Amino acid sequence: MAWREAAALHPPRRYRGEIYWGKPLPAFGEPQARLVLVGLAPAAHGGNRTGRLFTGDASGDFLFRALHAEGLANHSDSKHAADGLVLSGALLTAACRCAPPANRPAPCEFARCRGYLERELDLIPGRRVLVAFGALAFGECIRALAPSGPSSPRPRFAHGVRVEMGGRTLYGSYHPSQQNTFTGRLTQGMLREVLRRARREAEKIAL
Fold it and tell me: How far is CA 97 from CA 21, 59, 174, 203, in A?
């Protein structure tokens, strides 16, 4: 929490003069959607600045380009909280709600935020489809879906992996960070394929 606020009070030169959100971030999208997209945490000068997850940074631009292509967003980019962006049939949330140092939440931060994710998943009883961006978010989804511990063996993260747990379906995707997108580890085609599979499965549940 202290680091999140410090980042907001001491922005880099390119954002000086802007008023940062600097608080925990809520989920964004349709609370009743059957498709839940789970990121890791707000970026210090992305969501922590703009007040919306995956907004105002390169990771968000990459993600929303794919969401728009798959019919899940009305715009292909996400610049600020008042840009008119709307999600259709999806809820975007995160495993950790505050921007962490080096974009890597500590175990205690995950533990403090886990209840929020669990309650969001309980907004609709029955089946939901999750897409976790990155191994850490994937692990937190497993903990939320199986609080008493998953059956052995524990599902292993991989891009495109699909597991069923706690009456829900969980897909894994590489995180749309610049570390992955600039190196080609994650391409638009790869991300869209996972989103497409998850969206189609969620649409069948909603029928």
Answer: 12, 16, 19, 27
